[in-house]
Design a protein that fits this description.
The chain is of the alpha+beta class and about 160 residues long. The protein has 5 helices and 7 strands; from the N terminus they run βαββαββαβαβα. Strands 2-3-6-5-4-1-7 form a 7-stranded mixed sheet, with helices on both faces. It starts with a strand and ends with a helix. It comes from Halorubrum saccharovorum DSM 1137.
Length: about 160
């Protein structure tokens, strides 16, 4: 069982188009082989300009994804399939201004609303810390992934009540 946690910054427009809503792939006969057997998928990627190739290479099926934007964590999910999209088919088909070859599918998507400071506390980061795309160090992951998801869900529900 995987125990990696990735903090993932998002561009809201592209994120809404391909993660918040699954993409219907049946309309695309030219899709990459890694997507050929899927009727739909939630798709995201690591920007080629981010320099995080080694972080992408450490992603495994089942790893926890925490998506954030503008001081808030907006969603959780799990890594599905990861692949190199050398032709940039996914980015040129679905995203604006996001050319990339390092693509992954997102499973178990859940919308949340948790403040950055609350999630930072889970991993013992300062309240104001804002990461780029990164893998949380093993020494900072002190609970199993489902417990982390539960804590974020708890913060999300508290936000909704406030």
């Amino acid at each position: 069982m995987s125990a990696n946690v990735f903090l993932v910054p998002i561009d809201p427009e592209n994120f809404d188009r391909t993660v918040r809503s699954a993409v219907d792939l049946t309309e695309y006969d030219d899709r990459p082989d890694n997507l050929a057997d899927l009727d739909e998928a939630r798709l995201w990627a690591v920007d080629d300009d981010s320099g995080n190739g080694s972080t992408f290479e450490r992603m495994s099926e089942g790893d926890l994804l925490l998506f954030y934007h503008d001081g808030e964590y907006l969603a959780t999910g799990r890594v599905g399939t990861t692949f190199e999209d050398e032709d940039r088919w996914v980015s040129s088909t679905f995203w604006t201004a996001f050319p990339t070859t390092r693509v992954y599918t997102v499973t178990d998507f859940t919308a949340v609303s948790a403040p950055k400071r609350a999630v930072n506390a889970i991993f013992d980061y300062s309240k104001s810390y804002t990461p780029g795309f990164m893998r949380v160090a093993d020494s900072r992951v002190n609970a199993d992934l489902s417990s982390i998801e539960s804590a974020i869900d708890h913060y999300s529900k508290r936000n909704a009540e406030a």
